[in-house]
Automatic annotation (TrEMBL):
<feature type="transmembrane region" description="Helical">
    <location>
        <begin position="150"/>
        <end position="172"/>
    </location>
</feature>
<keyword id="KW-0812">Transmembrane</keyword>
<feature type="transmembrane region" description="Helical">
    <location>
        <begin position="244"/>
        <end position="264"/>
    </location>
</feature>
<feature type="transmembrane region" description="Helical">
    <location>
        <begin position="127"/>
        <end position="143"/>
    </location>
</feature>
<keyword id="KW-0472">Membrane</keyword>
<feature type="domain" description="Acyltransferase 3">
    <location>
        <begin position="11"/>
        <end position="325"/>
    </location>
</feature>
<dbReference type="Pfam" id="PF01757">
    <property type="entry name" value="Acyl_transf_3"/>
</dbReference>
<protein>
    <submittedName>
        <fullName>Acyltransferase</fullName>
    </submittedName>
</protein>
<dbReference type="InterPro" id="IPR050879">
    <property type="entry name" value="Acyltransferase_3"/>
</dbReference>
<feature type="transmembrane region" description="Helical">
    <location>
        <begin position="341"/>
        <end position="364"/>
    </location>
</feature>
<feature type="transmembrane region" description="Helical">
    <location>
        <begin position="54"/>
        <end position="73"/>
    </location>
</feature>
<feature type="domain" description="SGNH">
    <location>
        <begin position="393"/>
        <end position="648"/>
    </location>
</feature>
<dbReference type="Pfam" id="PF19040">
    <property type="entry name" value="SGNH"/>
</dbReference>
<feature type="transmembrane region" description="Helical">
    <location>
        <begin position="192"/>
        <end position="209"/>
    </location>
</feature>
<keyword id="KW-0012">Acyltransferase</keyword>
<feature type="transmembrane region" description="Helical">
    <location>
        <begin position="218"/>
        <end position="238"/>
    </location>
</feature>
<dbReference type="InterPro" id="IPR043968">
    <property type="entry name" value="SGNH"/>
</dbReference>
Length: 655
C-alpha cells in the first residue's frame, strides 16, 4: 500500500487495504476466541481499553501534526476545509463517512490532496472493532445454547455477515443505489457494511484454525503459495480504474486467507519466511508507518510539486519516523496508566478532543480567509459557484424528469424560452445567460450535468459506459426536440478528446475510439447529430466554443486550492497562472476543430470568447485584481456576469 501511494509501479497496490482487513479479522477473532476459551465470555471493557491504547494515541499524534502542517502548507480555498473535515472524522472513527461526503472517489485528483485520505480504512477497522466482538459473542452464546458448540454458532453468524456484506458490496460497486446513498460506488469503497465481508473472511479462517486439523506440509505449501500468487497478481494486474471492491476484490481477499492458512502449517517455508525478524519488525511499526506515510507524501508534494522522486523519499522517511513514534510515544502509553476505566477514558478524551479542536480552528479560519482582507477579496470571486449548482439545476437527472421550477427564470409570458444545457462548461454561463434573458425579457431554463456534454456519444471510463450520462443525453435531447421553438445554448469542456482514460463510442455504429484523432472525428459526428436534431425541431442553437483552459503543474488544471496560505498572504496574485493563447490553441486544436466542423455541417451559430477572456493573446486566471477563472476549467461567476452583453447580442437575433 505504501509503495502504491509512493507512486512506484505497483498499479494494484491499493489492495493492501483488503489484505489488512482480512488480517485484522483473523487476528481479532483469534484473540477473542482465546478469551472465550479461557473465561467463557468476552471481557468487553478490557478489549476496548486495549484497542484504544493501541490505536488512538498514535492516530492523535499524526492528526495533530497534520493539522499544524495544514495551517502553513495548504490552501484556504478548499484544501484546508477538506482536511479539517477528514480530521474531525478520523478523530471520531468516522473518517470514511467524512471522506465520502467531501470526495467523489478515492482515486480522483481532489482526493489525492487530502493528507488524511488513508484514514478511511482505519475508521472501517475501528467500526469493525465496535460491532464485531458483540456479533461473535452472540453467535458463540447461541451456538452453546442450541448446539453446545459455541464455535459452530459463531461460524454461522460470521458466514451470514460475510454473505450479506458481500451482496451489499457488489450491489453498490456496480452503481446500484440504496436509500440515503447518492454515490453508490463511492459508498461501496468507503463504507463498513460493504467491507465487513473482508474482515469476516479473516474471521472464518480464525474459526477454522481454532478447531480444524492443520494441513500437511505439502498441502499447506500449495495453499500458501497459491495465495501468494493471487496477491502478486492483484498487486500487479488490477488497475485503479477497475470497479472496486466489486467482484475483483475476491482475488486479494482469498489470496490473503490462503496465505494465512498456509502460513500456519508447522515447518512450512512460507511460515518461516513470514516469521523472519525483519518482516516482524516492520509488522510491529506497520500501523505507525501507514499513519505517517500519506501525510508526508501529500505535504512533500505540495512543497516540491515538480520533483517526481519526492513521494518515494517521503514514504521512506516515514519508516524511521514511524519507528520513533512507536518506540518513544506509542509503547510508553500502552505500558503506562494501566487498563483502569478512568485512565482509558482520559486517554480517549485527550486523543479525540485535541485534534478536533485543532481542525476546528483550521476549518473556521480557512472559511474566514484567516482574517486576511486580500484573501477574503479573492474568496468572494473564486468561491461562488454558478446559480445552477445552488438551485439544483446541475445534476444527472434527465431534463424531462426534473422539477424545473427553481431552474426557470421567468421573462415575457408566452415568449420563446432560452435553454442552457450541457456539462459544467455550459453551467458556468448561468449568470451570463440569465442576465441576458432579463435584458431581452425572455425566460431562461438551466439544465446541466457535470462531465456530460449534450452530444450523441457514449463516454466510457475504465471500460465502463457512463450510463447516467447517456440517459441524460438521450432523454434530454428528445425532450428538447418536443418543445416549442426556443434558443438553445450549448457548451462543453471537450477534454475527453485528449483524455487517455476516456473512450468515446458511436451509439449508431458501435465504433470506439481512444486515440485523439479518432475521438475528434467521432466527437464532430456526434455533436453534429445533436445540433441537427435540435435545429430541425425549430430551435435556434447557439454553440459556445470551448474556452481556453489553464493548466498547472504536471498537467493538472490550475486551482486556487493549490495555493498555500503563506503564498496567499504574501500576494494573492502569485496564486494565479498565465498561459499564452497560442499554447492553449495548440492543446485544444482538436476540440475546436471538431466543434467548428459540427457547427458548420449543422448550420448553427457559434460564439468564440477567446478574445474576451484572453486579451493581448494571454490567458490569465487574474487580471488587474479581477479573477476571471475560478479554476483552470471554469470562469468565475463574476466573469460570467461580465459576459452578459456578449450573450445578449448573440441571443438578440434569435427568436
Amino acid at each position: 500500500m505504501v509503495a502504491y501511494h509512493a507512486g512506484l509501479p505497483v498499479q494494484g497496490g491499493f489492495v493492501g487495504v483488503d489484505v489488512f482487513f482480512v488480517i485484522s479479522g483473523f487476528v481479532i477473532t483469534m484473540l477473542l476466541l482465546r478469551e472465550l476459551a479461557a473465561h467463557g465470555r468476552i471481557r468487553f471493557r478490557r478489549f476496548y481499553a486495549r484497542r484504544i491504547r493501541r490505536l488512538l494515541p498514535a492516530l492523535a499524534l499524526v492528526l495533530t501534526v497534520t493539522a499544524l502542517l495544514s495551517m502553513v502548507l495548504q490552501s484556504p480555498f478548499g484544501s484546508q476545509q477538506d482536511t479539517a473535515v477528514a480530521g474531525v472524522g478520523a478523530s471520531m472513527w468516522l473518517a470514511n463517512v467524512a471522506l465520502y461526503l467531501v470526495t467523489g472517489d478515492y482515486f480522483d485528483n481532489a482526493a489525492e490532496t487530502i493528507p488524511l485520505l488513508h484514514t478511511w480504512s482505519l475508521a472501517v477497522e475501528e467500526q469493525f472493532y465496535l460491532v464485531f466482538p458483540v456479533l461473535l459473542a452472540v453467535g458463540y452464546w447461541w451456538g452453546r445454547r442450541k448446539q453446545r458448540r459455541g464455535v459452530g454458532g459463531a461460524t454461522l453468524v460470521m458466514a451470514a455477515v460475510v454473505a450479506a456484506s458481500f451482496a451489499i458490496s457488489l450491489w453498490l460497486s456496480y452503481g446500484h443505489g440504496l436509500p440515503f446513498i447518492d454515490k453508490p460506488s463511492t459508498a461501496a469503497f468507503y463504507s463498513a457494511p460493504s467491507r465487513a465481508w473482508e474482515f469476516g473472511i479473516g474471521g472464518l479462517v480464525a474459526l477454522w484454525a481454532d478447531r480444524g486439523t492443520p494441513l500437511s506440509r505439502a498441502a499447506g505449501a500449495a495453499v500458501g503459495w497459491t495465495g501468494a500468487a493471487l496477491l502478486l497478481a492483484a498487486a500487479t494486474l488490477i488497475p485503479d480504474t477497475a470497479v472496486f471492491p466489486g467482484s475483483v476484490a475476491v482475488v486479494p481477499v482469498v489470496g490473503t486467507a490462503l496465505v494465512i492458512v498456509g502460513g500456519r502449517t508447522e515447518g512450512g517455508a512460507l511460515g518461516r519466511l513470514l516469521a523472519r525478524r525483519p518482516l516482524q519488525a516492520i509488522g510491529d511499526v506497520s500501523y505507525s508507518w501507514y499513519l505517517w506515510h500519506w501525510p508526508l507524501i501529500v505535504f512533500a508534494h505540495l512543497v516540491w510539486p515538480s520533483d517526481s522522486g519526492v513521494t518515494v523519499a517521503a514514504a521512506v522517511i516515514a519508516l524511521p519516523l514511524a519507528w520513533a513514534s512507536y518506540t518513544y510515544f506509542e509503547q510508553p502509553i500502552r505500558r503506562g496508566g494501566g487498563l483502569s476505566a478512568w485512565a482509558t477514558v482520559r486517554l480517549a478524551v485527550v486523543s479525540i478532543v485535541v485534534p478536533i479542536l485543532l481542525f476546528g480552528v483550521v476549518y473556521a479560519e480557512a472559511t474566514r480567509s484567516w482574517g486576511n482582507p486580500a484573501i477574503a477579496a479573492m474568496a468572494e470571486q473564486v468561491r461562488p459557484v454558478p446559480t445552477g449548482y445552488r438551485e439544483g439545476c446541475h445534476s444527472s437527472t434527465p431534463v424531462p424528469a426534473r422539477n424545473l421550477t427553481r431552474c426557470t427564470f421567468e421573462g415575457r409570458p408566452g415568449g420563446p424560452r432560452v435553454f442552457l444545457v450541457g456539462d459544467s462548461n455550459a453551467g458556468q454561463y448561468a449568470e451570463a445567460v440569465i442576465d441576458a434573458g432579463r435584458a431581452l425579457d425572455r425566460t431562461v431554463v438551466l439544465a446541466t450535468m457535470s462531465g456530460c456534454p449534450l452530444i450523441d456519444l457514449v463516454f466510457e471510463r475504465a471500460g465502463r459506459p457512463d450510463d447516467d450520462c447517456r440517459i441524460f443525453q438521450e432523454q434530454s435531447t428528445r425532450w428538447l426536440t418536443e418543445q416549442a421553438g426556443a434558443s438553445i445554448v450549448i457548451a462543453a469542456a471537450n477534454e475527453a478528446i485528449n483524455d487517455p482514460e476516456v473512450t468515446l463510442r458511436d451509439p449508431l455504429t458501435g465504433e470506439g475510439a481512444s486515440e485523439p484523432s479518432a475521438k475528434q472525428r467521432l466527437w464532430a459526428a456526434g455533436l453534429e447529430r445533436t445540433l441537427t436534431a435540435l435545429k430541425s425541431a425549430g430551435h435556434a442553437v447557439l454553440m459556445v466554443n470551448v474556452i481556453p483552459h489553464l493548466g498547472g503543474d504536471q498537467q493538472r488544471w490550475w486551482s486556487p486550492s493549490q495555493c498555500a496560505l503563506p503564498t496567499l498572504r504574501d500576494s494573492v496574485s502569485d496564486c494565479g497562472v498565465e498561459v499564452p493563447l497560442q499554447d492553449v490553441d495548440e492543446t485544444q486544436a482538436r476540440a475546436r476543430t471538431a466543434e467548428h466542423d459540427a457547427a458548420a455541417s449543422a448550420g448553427v451559430q457559434e460564439m468564440d470568447l477567446r478574445a474576451v477572456l484572453c486579451p493581448d493573446s494571454s490567458c490569465r486566471s487574474v487580471r488587474d485584481g479581477v479573477w476571471i477563472y475560478r479554476d483552470g476549467l471554469h470562469i468565475s461567476t463574476r466573469q460570467s456576469h461580465a459576459l452578459a452583453g456578449e450573450f445578449e447580442i448573440a441571443l438578440g437575433g434569435n427568436p
